Amino acid sequence: MSGAVYIAGRGAISCIGKNVQENIGALRRGEAGIGAIRYLRTVHANTFPAGEVKATNEELRDLSELTGTNSRTTMLGLIAAKEALTEAGLWEGGQLKKTLGGRSLRIGLISSTTVAGMDLTEEFFPAFMANHSAGRLRNVYQHEAGATTEYIARALGITEYINTISTACSSSANAIMLGARMLKAGMLDIVLAGGTDALSKFTLNGFSTLMILDQQLCQPFDQNRRGLNLGEGAGFLVLAGEQMMEALGREKRVRLSGYANANDAHHQTASSPDGTGSFMAMKGAIDMAQLNCSAIGYINLHGTGTQNNDASESTAIHRLFGDEYPAMSTTKSFTGHTLAACGALEAIYSAVSLEEQILFPSLRISLPVIEKPGVVVQELRRVSGLQHVLSNSFGFGGNCSSLLFSLS
Amino acid sequence: MYINGASAISPLPVFDALNEGVRFTEPEGARAKVSEPDYSKLIDPKLIRRMSRIIRMGVATAMDALKQAGLQQPDAIITGTAYGCLDDTGIFLRRLVENQEEMLTPTAFIQSTHNTVGAQVALMLKCHSYNNTYVQRSQSFELSLHDSRLWLTENPDHSVLVGAADELTDYSFALLQRFGLFRYHTAGEGAAYFVIQNKAADSTWAQLKGVRTLFRPDAAQLDLIMKELLALAGGSVDLLLSGERRGDPEGENYKSVKQVLGAEIPVLQYKNYCGEYPTASAFATWLAAWCLKQGKLEHEGLSIDRLRNVLIYQADAAGYHSFILLSHVKL
Amino acid sequence: MNREQLVEDLKQQIIEQLNLQIKPEDIVASDPLFGEGLGLDSIDALELIVLMQQKYRIKLANAEEGPKIFKSIDTMADFILANQTPAAG
Questions:
Q1: Alpha-carbon gap: B151 to the closest alpha carbon of chain A (Å)
Q2: Interface TM-score (ipTM) > 0.95
Q3: With an 8 Å Cβ cutoff, are A263 and B154 in contact?
Q4: A372 touches chain C (CB under 8 A)
C-alpha cells in the first residue's frame, strides 16, 4: 500500500514556546529562548547558556496532566504528543480516537530520546551510590528510554505499536522515517513519531567534557562560532497516508517525500572532514524524492555551532550543491540543540516554512560559513515558489539522517 | 528471511559453538556473567582499550556473524538494547557525583549513549549503510527484527546485520534486585547478532518465519496471534523456547500459550541458561537457530528427532509479549 | 620537580588514563603521541586535558592549545614545568 505520507498533526514544546503556535511566533519575531540555566540545578548554571523550556516540573505536570513521579522528558513528550494528536483530530474529550468511520485504527507511537529519565536518575544516584538500599525506586521507573515512551503510550492509550529510537541527535528524524516506512508498508494506519529530551546534568557535563559548549549565546554557521548551546524539548508529527488524511478531514499540504539514514563511520563523536555521512543522507533523501538538487529551496541545517559539525555539514552541502546553494539556516540559534527532539522540531519548522512560504533566520551571524550573499538566511525572509525543504539531523556515532518535505 | 550468520556471547559458552558444540550448563549464583572469547584475537587492541564489555560483546558477535555469511559489509545495521551502555553510564554518574560536576572525562560519556554498539560496528567496518538502534525494553530485539523484515521487503537483495546486547553491572544488579527481578532467578546478560537475507546459503542456520509483538494484550488478541503463528508453522510447533523463569509472576501467560500449542509441547526455558535480562530473546533466537541447524535436540529429557519449527515466547510484568517463529531449512 | 621523575609519572598516568595496553618502557618521551607514534586521537586529547587539571592543576581554556602541548611526553613535561601552580597548603 505504497503512497504519499502526509503530516496530519504537529506538536512542539521548546525554549521558544509551549506549543507550535508559540514556537512559530518566536521564530517569526527572531526571539531566541537561550539564556542562563534557571530550572536545572547545576554548578554550571551561569557558565553555559541553554535553551530550557520555561516551565518548572510542577508546571509541566499540570500541562501534561500526568500524576505521580515523572521524568521531565516524559512530560515534555506527552505535551507535544497530545498537541499533535489534537491537531490531527485524534484526541477528543481526553481520549484517543481509536475508530474512524466504523473502522478501528492501527495507531503506532515511535518516540525517541537520548536522556530519557536521567533527570530523575541523577537525583537518585548519590544516595544509591552510598548505600545500595537507599534512594526511592520511583525515581528510576522511567530511567530507560523505552520506559519514557511506554508511559507516554499508556497516557495516550496507544498499544498497537510502541517503539523508541536512540541514535543521538538524529533520533527523531529516524523515528519519522520509520513511521513513514511502516505507513507505506500498510503496517499501521496512523503514526505518532517524534522525540523528547530534557536538560540533565549528565548531558550538560557530558557535552562539557567534549569542550563543544559555547559559554556565550551560540553562533552556529558563523565562521567565528565557539560551540553549541544545549536545549530541551519535544516534537511530534502525526503521519498518515492519503486515504487516512481524507478520512480525518485533514488538508494534504505537506508531504514527507524523501528521507535517508546513512552512517559517517569516521569517528565516535566527530564528523568526517568531507562530510560523507551528511552527504549521503542528503543525497539519499533527494534521490528518493526523485528530484534534482536545484529543486531544493531551503535547508534547515543541523547547524549546531560546533567547529566540527558546521564545517563538515557545509562541506557536504558544497559537495552536493556545488556553488548553486539553496537558502539555509539553523533554527538551533533559537532553540539550542534539543538532541533527540531536534529532528521532529525542525521538521515542524520546515513544514511551516513550506506552508507559509517563509524562511526563518540563523540568529547572531556576522560572517557566515558560506559567504555567498543571501545563502545563509539572516533575517526572516518571505519567499515564493518554495516547493521542497531539506531538514538535516546528524548525530554522535555517525548517525546522519535527512528528511525532505514537499508542498502538495 | 534466512539467518545466514548467527553469533552469541552468553553465560552459556556458545561463541565457539560451530567448532565446539553446545554443552548446556546452568549458571550458578545470583549473577551470571557472560563467557567471553579472547577479544584481542578478534578486535584491534588499539580499539579495544576504549570499548566497554557490552561494546566488545556486540562487536565480536557482529563480526563473527558477518564472517559466517561471507560478508564484508551489511546493507543495514540494526541493534536493540534495553539498558544501553550501563557500565559507562554508571562510571559517568559516579564521577558526576564524586567530583560534583567538575573534571569529568569524555570517554565514559561518549561510550554511554545507546547507539554506541551499532555505531562502533559501523565504525570498524567503515560501513555507511542504514544504521538504527531500538530501545524498547524487552521488545528491543523483536522491534529490530521487525525493521529488518521491513528493510528486506523494501530492498529484497540486501543483507541485514541485526542483533541485541545488554549488560549487567554492579550498579544495575543492585538496583534491579530491588525491583524483585532476581528473586527466584539468576541475573544475566549477553549479546547476539545475526545476518539475515532473503535467500538461503551454505551458511544458513534457520528461517525466520514470523515475529509478533504485543503490549498488554487481552486473551483474545493473544489467541489470534497464536493461531496466526501456528498456521505459519504449518500446523504444529516442535519446541517452545520459553522465557519463563522460576517463580515467574507471568506464569499464567505461559500456561495459556502452552495450552494452545498442545499439552505435550516440549519446552526449554532459555533464561535458565542466559539469565534474566531484557534482550534475552536474542539469545533464544541464537539457541533456536542452533537447534534447528542440528535438526534435532537431545537435552534433559527432551528428545526431538525432527526439529522443524521452534517458537520463542516471552512475557514480562510490564505487559510486553513477544513471539519469534523459526523453521528448519534443508540445505 | 625533577624532570626525569615527571616524565616517568606522565608515562604512567597516560597509560592509566587512556587505558593503553603497553608498559612505560614502551613509550619514547620524544615520540609523537598523536597521529603516528602512540596513535592517540581527539578524545584522548580531551582526556589529557582533564589529566592536566586533575594532577597538575593546569587548566587549558582552549582545546586548540592541546595539539601543541601534547605533541610528545617531552613537550607535556616542558609545559607542566613552565605552568604548574604551586600546590595548595
A1: 9
A2: yes
A3: no
A4: no
In contact, A64 and A75? CB cutoff 8 Å: yes
The residues in A 198-237 lying below 8 A from B, measured between CB atoms, are 201-202, 205-206, 208-210
pTM greater than the 0.90 cutoff: yes
pLDDT of residue B300: 84
- DSSP classification of residue A201: H
Chain B partners within 8 Å of C17 (Cβ): 105
Q: Which residues of A touch B118 (CB under 8 A)?
A: 167, 397
Active site residue A267: no
Distances (CA, A) of A60 to A57, A64, A198, A233, B95: 5, 6, 12, 12, 30
Contact A263, B129 (CB under 8 A): yes
User: What was the pLDDT predicted at A369?
Assistant: 98
DSSP per-residue codes, A28-93: HHT----BS--SS--TTTTTS-EE--SS-HHHHHHHHT--SS--HHHHHHHHHHHHHHHHHT-EET
Ordered per-residue pLDDT tens for chain C, 89 residues: 789 999 999 999 999 999 898 899 999 999 999 877 788 888 899 999 999 988 888 888 777 788 788 999 999 999 999 887 665 43
Query: Could you tell me the three cell numbers for A273?
Result: 572532514
Is residue A343 left, alpha or beta, with left meaning phi > 0 and alpha meaning psi from -120 to 50?
A: alpha
d(C-alpha A22, C-alpha A31), whole Å: 11
In the predicted structure, residue B116 carries a pLDDT above the cut 80? yes
In this model, does residue B133 exceed pLDDT 80?
Answer: yes
The nearest CA of chain C is from the CA of B127 a distance in Å of 20
| Residues pairing with A389 in the sheet | A298, A405
| Residues of C with Cβ-Cβ distance to A269 under 8 angstroms | 42-43
Name the CA radius of gyration of chain B, rounded: 19
Least confident of A2-6, A22-26, B158-162, B193-197: A2-6
Q: What is the pLDDT of residues B33-42, one digit of tens each?
A: 999 999 988 8
Please confirm, yes or no, whether A169 is among the known catalytic residues. yes
Q: Give the pLDDT score at C66.
A: 81
Per-residue pLDDT tens over the stretch A15-60:
999 999 999 999 999 999 999 999 999 999 999 999 999 999 999 9
Give C47's contacts in chain B (Cβ within 8 Å). 105-107
pLDDT beyond 90 at B189:
yes
* CA of A388 vs chain B CAs: smallest distance (Å): 23
Residue C80 C-alpha, separation from nearest chain A C-alpha, in angstroms:
21
Residue written as grid cell 526563518 = A360
Chain A nearest-CA residue for B109: A206
Average pLDDT, chain A: 97
A1 band by pLDDT with thresholds 50, 70 and 90: very low
Q: Is A264 helix (H, G, I), strand (E, B) or coil?
A: coil
Q: For residue C89, which amino acid is it?
A: G
Q: Are B195 and B116 in contact (CB under 8 A)?
A: no
Q: DSSP letters along A330-341, please?
A: -THHHH-B-GGG
**What is A110-151 written as a DSSP string?**
EEE-SSTTHHHHHHHHHHHHH-TT-S-GGGTTT-SHHHHHHH
Closest chain A residue by Cα to residue B123: A265
Which residue out of A15, A143, A169, A400 is catalytically annotated? A169
